[in-house]
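To: structure desk
From: M.T.
Subject: fold request, one chain
Message: Could you run this one when you get a chance? Sequence is below, nothing fancy, just the single chain.
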Amino acid sequence: MILTYEYRIKPNSNQAQSFEQWLELLRRHWNYALGQRLDWLRRTRCAIDRCNLISEPIGEITEQVNYYTQQSDLKQTKILFPDYKNIYCEVQQMNLQRLDKAWKRWLIPDKKGKRGGRPRFKKAGQLRSFSFSRVNHPKAVIKFSSNCIWTKKWGAIPVVVHRPIPDGFKLKTATIVKKADGYYVCLTAEDDNIPNIIPIENIKSAVGIDVGLKEFLTTSKGETVAVKKIYLTLQNHLARQQRKLARKVKGSKNYDKQQKRIALTHQKIQRHRKDWHYKTAHLLVNNYDFIACEDLNIKGLARTKLAKSILDVAWGNFLIKLEAVAVKRGVWFVKVSPHGTTVNCSSCGHKVPKTLSVRLHECPRCNLTMDRDENAAVNVLNKALQMHGVGLILSACGGLVDGQPVKQETSEKEYVQLSLF
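Reply: Done. Structure tokens follow.
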């Protein structure tokens, strides 16, 4: 299992100036290396026995540019530009590895046939982090103790360790990140022990969740979590700050100060949302052994008129955090197809079409009446339980036996219980 711990660091003025210089030099190196790759791609986009009808560069075709060729050129870079001698070689290599990953994501599709966007040239200030490949290794250039990090070039830098790293975890990499309110170090720790997931026969409680905008989420037991409109609450303040920025002279000190105020506002929104997501995720994991949710196409939903509200609640980020917390705690986390979960009746399976404005599910066949989000959450739970064959006794309406019973009519006017075993 790999975990990342983020701690704030407090460098002095000389150390902070060194960070700024490194980030700027690494940004220039990123742009030069990316330009090499794009130039090689432009020169080799056509076969050697034919030419492009629009334009074709004339000149010698260089060898293929990749990570290994660019890594071997680092010695020549330090000769031509002596400032790069102050940067550790492994930091420059990690910078090239990051570019290589972005390049491959653009050219090579993944298992689903999707590709990432083309890597971009970075403007001044856009490269905001650099990494070390080893920590506390005998040959590592950076060391981490209980309350500081140390390198030969910087000396000791105080670290605010608000949460200790668990015993048994071995530090692997370190990344220095520049944020709106200062510098942080992200330490990646690895442990060979993986939390064992709860055996199917030991699952005692299960829940399905349905995310929405009226309520952030609704569980199959009728519990709800209210929506926090974090961005929508601060958008007017943010708009005023951005109008002030537009009236400043670009590049002036007042422009930079106003730009920092806007960055701090965005950081406040991000941290508030992150804290809310993690608290909600831990609340679910503490109470249930089996959690089921919908595998939503959030990018598609964000193209609708409700895009701002959907992006504000950030369903995708929440589900990622919920899955990470569940895996860490050994709790089942299952995603199911959202097809039919809102329309189908959780009691009899009859399709009841409804528009988004209709908030109540009323089935004409079995006379079931309940909140539409709770009905969808029950359907999500039923799908997940059937998919994995969990041995929980379900009522005919799809809910757990200890939940609220719902009547279903049968030919003999009896109530039945279904068992997946």
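Reply (cont.): Residues 393-421 have pLDDT under 50 and may be disordered. Let me know if you need anything else for the meeting.
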